[in-house]
């Protein structure tokens, strides 16, 4: 299973529907946080991998950051490009239609982010996920920061078996489930989604193998970011790392 399993899901979703989800409602505070912990200043270049409709990338561009957003969903990229054009942000906000496993621009960016399972946790095997991290590291200048938020494997384990619709394989830590719309008997699109869940030591090792040194691990659940300890049962974990060298 790969990130391609998610394409029918995102291809069927409009940008407006995505942006109406509850976890998308704290963009301003989240960008405040990113500006602070990454030390971002006007004119810096930031890579946003799995940018979706560009909510973080566009807000950073409004603050004078030069952003490249990358996503594999055509309608999300088109929406972000249109919004950038409407706001006169084309010179600061670039949006690229590409797979996170393939995108790399060597030693280009002052910082990078991959947020809210935009690219990382949607890939069900370790090789793909490490490949994403390696390409991010290769795109960063030495010492540049990278912020990742991904699903909290501790919570997944503690909740295993409580939801009959979600199935966690204890040998692979891959969770699978079928969206409600796809599960309907007469649905024209029947598909199953999957994602790899990690605990913190695994994430730290994967970063290290990709050339990134983890400096902090924080609670990263959307809408509740902060430089605070990770809670066992929160949805997402956040890692702040830097490119080695």
List the main descriptive attributes of the protein structure presented here.
globular; 10 strands; Rossmann fold; seven-stranded mixed sheet; 22% strand; alpha/beta; three-stranded antiparallel sheet; single chain; 245 residues
Give an account of the 3D structure:
The protein has 245 residues and is α/β, with parallel strands linked by helices. The protein has one domain (3-151, 199-243): Rossmann fold, CATH 3.40.50.150. It is 31% helix and 22% strand. The protein is built from nine helices and ten strands. It has helices at 7-11, 15-19, 27-37, 55-62, 74-86, 126-139, 153-159, 180-183, 200-209, and strands at residues 45-49, 66-71, 93-97, 111-114, 145-151, 167-169, 174-177, 193-196, 212-219, 236-243. The strands form two sheets. Strands 3-2-1-4-5-10-9 form a seven-stranded mixed beta sheet, sandwiched between helices. It has a three-stranded antiparallel beta sheet with strand order 6-7-8, with no helix packed on it. A hairpin with a 4-residue loop joins strand 6 and strand 7. The protein is globular and about 50 Å long. The two termini are 34 Å apart. The model is unreliable at 183-188 (pLDDT under 50).
